[in-house]
């Protein structure tokens, strides 16, 4: 603990008797002073003793420091001597090493020619045995030393080929030629490789393959390996699956046997494609190529798809640097003769198949397809008939048949869908948009022109004249089915054609062709507006047959029990059916357009019809009830203009029953204020009491 003088003195005083007031003891300053003096003397003695001890330790430390410095100097001298000795030893070792290396070079210079001379002597000995025709050496007679014998034969063969004189070469090389030991040993090695492969001895196969690597027959060894690999590999019906399994198995083994596994595996795959697959494809396609186009196209698509799928699996293996190009060339070599004219076969089949589907449908309906005139006199007749409502020549009776079939459409679209799929798979990328456009043109020709357009033309020709009684309006059924079919056509256009042409100039051409088709059909649908004339004609027949003059001028004004006339009930029922039919037959804005036109004509018909009768007070009330019912019917149109017209007509009918004194007030009402006064006057004139002086005076 740190020394504090005040605390030390306090403790000393406290321990001294009389140095404080402890225990009631009196304070004795003399005694305390004496204690302090004695204690100071003790401290001085202690200080002198400690000082002497410090001086002694300092002297001892100085002495030891001198001794240590002397010892360090001696060690430094010893280290310098040792370092000099190490340098001398290193120089000596370097000198000795140089001498040893030089001596080694000299020994190698002497030994290498000696070894070559020994090897040359051995080769000359073996060569001499070949010249003598007697092979006595153990290396040739012992079958277990076939590897050493192969090495010797290979060297002798190379030497024999380099002999300068033709005669000597012929003489010396004959024993080593294709009919000599070289060929025999090569055949023996290949046979050994074959046997090892059959036994499944991978190590022996690898050893023999390494020996054969320097022989001419190495490629033959690879061929034998490839041939044996395929033995028993193609026993099932699925040659593509067999090929994939075989390549998977060989890929694991070939790296353990050959030094160039990627080359061997590529050669195996090439052999499979050019032999097995090409033969299989040819057998499958040539059988139907000329006799059955449908089966031929299905087989071609299936075989090409399975071949490309096999190629995708083989891409996992190491086949060299550019395996994509390698496999593409193999596929092209198999299918090139079939793909060159694929699109012609496709278009020919699609054309004949589509024509057959349509003809089979028309035959089932016992219908002989006829040519419908679309120009010249026919157009003139149509325009005159529409403007005058006069029948110029009889209309075609379709007997309620629309000549549109969902089954036919589904079959045509299905055939075209399959054609698009085959086109995508089998066409060259540069020809794909062009080929897809040709298929689309076939679809347009047979579905849109030969089927939908023909049905529309026939439906137009079958529209009865407006004065026909009990006319059946089948054209709306044609419109309904044509609309549904075109939605299916448009879906296939977007789902199957667009992906094939989306990035090519053919896109704009296809869109324009589709636009022309739509416009052409819309023109024919617009021409079918004549159907509305027939509807109005039917309403006229109902009104003429059911409406009686006595309906609005009953004999007994006080005994009228009906709420509205029978003619009104039947007309409203007919109109509601036609509105529902139009909604089912059309979609989008076309529904509102047609219903607006029908509603306006319906209003005009009722307006003109009401102008034909005179109305008593009770008859006017009945007319108001009829118009109210017509107005309810008009609400089904959901067209604001039509409802407004009938609201106005209902207000006009109020003029038939209002009291003479209130006529001016009613005419100035919100709904009638903007009408021509002549219209108001014409309705007032229909009142039975119009000629009374009072009514005429009030209205004027």
Automatic annotation (TrEMBL):
A GO cellular component annotation here is:
exocyst
Keywords of the record, alphabetical order, are: Coiled coil, Exocytosis, Transport
The residue ranges of the Exocyst complex component Sec10 N-terminal domain are 29-137
Give GO BP annotations, semicolon-separated.
Answer: exocytosis; Golgi to plasma membrane transport
Answer yes or no on keyword Transmembrane helix: no
Query: Which intervals of the chain form a coiled coil?
Result: 40-78
List residues of the Exocyst complex component Sec10-like alpha-helical bundle domain: 148-699
Family the entry assigns: Belongs to the SEC10 family.
Its recorded name reads Exocyst complex component 5
Native species: Mesembrinibis cayennensis
């Amino acid at each position: 603990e740190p020394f504090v003088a005040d605390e030390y003195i306090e403790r000393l005083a406290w321990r001294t008797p009389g140095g404080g007031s402890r225990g009631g003891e009196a304070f004795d300053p003399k005694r305390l002073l004496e204690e302090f003096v004695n204690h100071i003397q003790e401290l001085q003695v202690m200080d002198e003793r400690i000082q002497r001890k410090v001086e002694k330790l300092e002297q001892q430390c100085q002495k030891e420091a001198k001794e240590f410095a002397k010892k360090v100097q001696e060690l430094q001298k010893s280290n310098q001597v040792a370092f000099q000795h190490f340098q001398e030893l290193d120089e000596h070792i370097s000198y000795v090493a140089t001498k040893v290396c030089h001596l080694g070079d000299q020994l190698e210079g002497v030994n290498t020619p000696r070894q070559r001379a020994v090897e040359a002597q051995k080769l000359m000995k073996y060569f001499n045995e070949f010249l003598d025709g007697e092979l006595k050496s153990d290396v040739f007679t012992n079958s277990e030393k076939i590897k050493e014998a192969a090495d010797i034969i290979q060297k002798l063969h190379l030497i024999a080929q380099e002999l300068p004189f033709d005669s000597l070469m012929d003489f010396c090389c004959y024993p080593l030629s294709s009919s000599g030991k070289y060929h025999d040993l090569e055949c023996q090695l290949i046979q050994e490789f074959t046997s090892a492969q059959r036994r499944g001895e991978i190590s022996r196969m690898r050893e023999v393959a390494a020996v054969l690597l320097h022989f001419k027959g190495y490629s033959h060894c690879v061929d034998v390996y490839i041939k044996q690999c395929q033995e028993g590999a193609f026993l099932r019906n699925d040659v593509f699956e067999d090929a994939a399994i075989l390549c998977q198995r060989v890929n694991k083994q070939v790296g353990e046997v050959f030094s160039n596994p990627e080359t061997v595996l590529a050669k195996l795959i090439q052999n499979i494609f050019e032999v097995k697959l090409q033969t299989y494809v040819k057998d499958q396609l040539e059988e139907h190529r000329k006799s059955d186009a449908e089966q031929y196209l299905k087989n071609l698509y299936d075989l090409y798809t399975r071949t490309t799928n096999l190629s995708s699996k083989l891409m996992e293996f190491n086949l060299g640097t550019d395996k994509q190009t390698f496999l593409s060339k193999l596929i092209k070599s198999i299918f090139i003769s079939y793909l060159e004219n694929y699109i012609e076969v496709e278009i020919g089949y699609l054309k004949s198949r589509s024509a057959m589907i349509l003809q089979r449908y028309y035959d089932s309906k016992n219908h002989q397809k006829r040519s419908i005139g679309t120009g010249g006199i026919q157009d003139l007749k149509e325009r005159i008939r529409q403007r005058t409502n006069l029948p110029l020549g009889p209309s075609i009776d379709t007997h309620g048949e629309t000549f549109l079939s969902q089954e036919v459409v589904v079959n045509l679209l299905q055939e075209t869908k399959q054609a698009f799929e085959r086109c995508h798979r089998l066409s060259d990328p540069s020809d794909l948009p062009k080929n897809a456009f040709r298929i689309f043109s076939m679809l347009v020709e047979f579905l849109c022109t030969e089927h939908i357009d023909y049905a529309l033309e026939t439906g137009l020709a079958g529209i009865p004249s407006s004065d026909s009684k009990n006319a059946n309006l089948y054209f709306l059924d044609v419109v309904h089915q044509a609309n549904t079919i075109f939605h299916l056509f448009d879906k296939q256009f977007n789902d199957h054609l667009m992906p094939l042409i989306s990035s090519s100039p053919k896109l704009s051409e296809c869109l324009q062709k589709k636009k022309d088709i739509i416009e052409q059909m819309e023109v024919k649908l617009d021409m079918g507006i004549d159907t509305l004339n027939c509807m109005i004609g039917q309403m006229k027949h109902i009104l003429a047959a059911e409406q009686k003059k006595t309906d609005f001028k009953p004999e007994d004004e006080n005994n009228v029990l009906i709420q509205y006339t029978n003619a009104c009930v039947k007309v409203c029922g007919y109109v509601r059916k036609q509105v529902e039919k139009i909604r089912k037959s059309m979609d989008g804005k076309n529904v509102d357009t047609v219903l607006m036109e029908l509603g306006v004509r319906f209003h005009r018909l009722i307006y003109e019809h009401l102008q034909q009768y005179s109305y008593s007070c009770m008859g006017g009330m009945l007319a108001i009830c009829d118009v109210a019912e017509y107005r309810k019917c008009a609400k089904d149109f959901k067209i604001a203009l039509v409802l407004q017209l009938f609201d106005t007509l209902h207000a006009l009918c109020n003029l038939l029953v209002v009291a003479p004194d209130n006529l001016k007030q009613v005419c100035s009402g919100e709904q009638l204020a903007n009408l021509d006064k002549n219209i108001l006057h014409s309705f007032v004139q229909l009142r039975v009491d119009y000629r009374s002086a009072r009514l005429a005076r009030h209205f004027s």
